[in-house]
Amino acid sequence: MGTPYIKDYQVLWSDLDGNMHMKNTSYLEYASNIRMTYFFDMGFPPKRMLTMGVGPVAVKDEILYIREIQLMETFKVSLQLDGLSDDQTRMRLINQFINEKGVIFGKVTSDGVWFNLLQRKVMPPPEEIKELMLKLPRSETYCTIK
Asked: Where are the domains of the chain?
């Protein structure tokens, strides 16, 4: 375990649905954004992945809605590694959405794979990506994925 990787955001008008709730697609977009931001901040921009012919692909997302958050409120999104296969082809990532008061208002759990963009199949990531995956803080529920 370790301190989660965290980024700050603000609820935008475009994040809301007709009920003035943060819509499901916004949760998924912030979860996806922080994953790519992690690699960028670690000196590995997404363009580099493209030149290597590899990219992450989410194969399953689960959103847990806990509380509401309102327009223009600031919030944090955390990123933790919840699971990894031995060959690192498969991963599980957890994002927690935390309001200004430090209360978790939502959670996204995503299962993903590393994908060979040329051969169009699942592959182990290059060594540089493996190292960055291992540097991700682990969740309390981290386990090896079979």
From this structure: 5-145
The CATH superfamily assigned to 5-145 is: Hotdog Thioesterase (3.10.129.10)
Q: What is the pLDDT of residues 73-91, one digit of tens each?
A: 999 999 999 999 999 999 9
> Residue for token digits 């609820």?
11
Q: What confidence tens digit (pLDDT) does each residue in 44-66 have?
A: 999 999 999 999 999 999 999 99
What would the two tokens of residue 4 be? 């989660």
Predicted TM-score of the model (pTM): 0.94
pLDDT tens column, 89-139:
999 999 999 999 999 999 999 999 999 999 999 999 999 999 999 999 999
Look-up of token digits 């990531």: 125
Name 52's Cβ contacts closer than 8 Å, sequence gap at least 6: 126
Torsion of CA 141, 77, 3, 55, to 10 degrees: 70
